[in-house]
């Protein structure tokens, strides 16, 4: 990397903060180390489910130990540890939280992969493997931002906390949710998170997942005697059809939220695929799991299915569940339960950290990211629930959760630089 060209946009060499220049030079010197660390991190398989992250946590702990960092292990589930480290700057100021998770999506039997899901192969400038972009890239950026700033802590204001957590992929209770409920000292005054976004966007909010499990039970009958019993599978398909109409609901939008979403629409469709911008602003319904019947020549006596509903900002579960209750009331054979609910969340798109990320990303890459609402969920929502600004900026999400997941090396290094510089900017002033 030509450091002078990358930093010219930050005010030029003569005016650029010496501390930031020092950090960028350090990242460049550590280029091989950073790449090797991420690759070894990916090789520490941590699929969730089942959720055992001990190997990945040991990888993080080994680096912190090598740097003499004091940290806590908070593990309400012994195989899903959360690693929390903090330091105080030399001057009074605010408390910045860096957050990332160490669990990843499962790969099943690996069918469809052309690369070893846990091999972290480096091919044509890309690192392949489960968790490469979601989110061991972003978590690595958080870890090294913490380490680099810790070395110059005497010059900084306030406090910096790193939380590398487990149990994010299933919205489970053993990771950041546990910290949210039991360790408020971790959350601070602002959060920076490295979940995937693409270099074109940063996230200031996200939709809320509402996962429902439905059960339909009927008497059942021989398949030739359809007059003897209603079919549980037919009732299930009727309910699913009605649930799909939830997408027609129109949520209210605050004025500044609507303006930000209007401005981001073209970029969102380009980054995440055509139709993404529309889905950010509406209820979406995905009946992701369906199981019913015992045999083709039997009228099904039981059917169960699970539905992933995503709520835009402006709605909460009361709006949707009222409609769901109306649908289920038309089918006395059916009942449902809530599996997961996390309300949608957003921080103002022009907070201080948002401006730091935007300015640094543009200066380092030439691309000024646009503020967007996320289709998927992240642990950053938990900061927003506490009315703490939370900004997410990470690599491209296009292959996350899919076969041959990867992160481009240069994109990874860009995320590291942007996180380090943005955290530094935040801690360079008292308030």
| Helical stretch tally | 13
Placed side by side, the strands forming the largest sheet appear as 1-2-6-3-7-17
Low-confidence stretches: 11-15
Structural class designation: alpha+beta
Query: What is the number of domains?
Result: 2
- Specify the biggest β-sheet: 6 strands, mixed
Gap between N and C termini: 33 Å
CATH superfamily of the largest domain: Zn peptidases
Classify the beta-strand content into a percent band: 15-25%
Report the helical percentage.
Answer: 25-40%
Number of beta strands: 18
CATH architecture of the largest domain: 3-Layer(aba) Sandwich
CATH topology of the largest domain: Aminopeptidase
What gross morphology would you assign?
globular
Assign the CATH class of the largest domain. Alpha Beta
Rg (C-alpha, Å):
23 Å
Average pLDDT reading:
94
